[in-house]
Amino acid sequence: MIRAAIVAIALAAAPPAWANSAVEAQLAQIGKPAAVFVIGDGPEQGYAEGLADPGTGRELTVDTPVRIASNTKTFTAAAVLRLWEQGRIDLDAPIGGLINPRLDRILRADGYDTKAITVRHLLSHSGGLYDHGGDKRFVESLMTDPGKVWTREALVKLATDYADPQSKPGTEFRYSDTGYILLGDIVERITGKTLASSVRALLKLDSLGLGATWWEIYEAPPKGAQGRARQFIGDRDVTAVDPSMDLFGGGGQLMSARDLATFFKALFEGRVFDKPGTIREMLWKGPHKNADTYRLGIFVQHTPKGERYWHSGFWGTYAAYAPASGIALGAVTTKQGTKPLMPLVDQLMRQAP
């Protein structure tokens, strides 16, 4: 495996010792192409190892975009919260009057009470919706027919075909891609624009310097962006799996490690929302079971140095922010799964001064 040199992005200062020791100790243990980007109060740090494209020998860098899958949920949730701070949506409104009537009929036919499920329930994964994306039958179908084009309605119908409602609305945390597909639909119906253009405008993405961020199908790559990395499940190349299988709010974006870290730092440090109260609303802890693990579009991890806000994505992506240190981190791999990344991620986050 080719190892890229550890690079201090801010060349005027040397990399901090805590970062060097963590990377040197953990980078070789990952065992697959990976890139990590760290932003704190000192110089920005980028680390990368391996190939973005084994066929051509192109190296992976911190600026190489990959499909980020469920990391997109933080963006979808933040877009809903921007609509909330603008007075354009009530988080406690029932979704029955907000989602497309076709989606409403699909859900009601399976026993969902769309008058009882609220926007907040979808954001916090407490609406009782089944998670079609986590069903092994769905993954198997993608491997069998990777070129299949999916619609929002087809994916929601798949969830109702797989299983019935999982719990009463507002009673417990149950992670669900399906719920975020409904949120994406709500955003589009309120704005009258595609989810991609709505997220870009609402979250001010063009002002954040994100040079490798775009929504598949709906947006073109930014000028000068690197080519997308090839992505794998085990040894199987799944780069060509049609993006419509994860396009409508639960996933859909391509981003680099640098851009993930940059966005997370901007989100939690006041450069995305207009009002300080909005980030507090995003971190609302519900009364439902297991509410402490997930707020509105963001996971929460309790550490000795305070809370860490994070999200990951199926293909092997991770982003986090630690308020106590002001450290934001983005990490990507090209082979599915974030588990090999976590020792390195934890060292980088824990050893920050």
Structure, described:
With about 350 residues, the protein is an alpha+beta fold. The chain has one domain (about 5-350): 3-Layer(aba) Sandwich (Beta-lactamase), CATH 3.40.710.10. Helices cover about 30% and strands about 15% of the residues. The protein contains eleven helices and 14 strands. It has helices at about 15-25, 70-85, 100-110, 120-125, 135-145, 150-160, 175-190, 195-200, 255-270, 275-280, 340-350, and strands spanning about 5-10, 35-40, 45-50, 50-55, 60, 65, 215, 230-235, 235, 255, 300-305, 305-315, 315-320, 325-335. The strands form four sheets. It has a seven-stranded antiparallel β-sheet with strand order 1-3-2-14-13-12-11, with helices on both faces. A three-stranded antiparallel β-sheet has the order 6-10-7. A two-stranded antiparallel ribbon has the order 4-5. A hairpin with a 4-residue loop joins β4 (about 50-55) and β5 (about 60). α1 packs antiparallel against α11 and α3 packs parallel to α6 (about 150-160). The protein is globular and about 55 Å long. The chain starts with 6 loop residues before the first strand and ends with a helix. Residues about 1-20 have low confidence and may be disordered.
What is the topological layout?
Blueprint lengths: L6 E2 L8 H10 L7 E6 L5 E5 L1 E3 L4 E2 L6 E2 L4 H14 L15 H9 L9 H5 L12 H9 L7 H11 L14 H15 L3 H8 L11 E2 L16 E2 L2 E2 L15 E3 L1 H12 L7 H7 L16 E5 L2 E8 L3 E6 L4 E7 L8 H9 L3
Antiparallel strand pairs: 1-3, 2-3, 2-14, 4-5, 6-10, 7-10, 8-9, 11-12, 12-13, 13-14
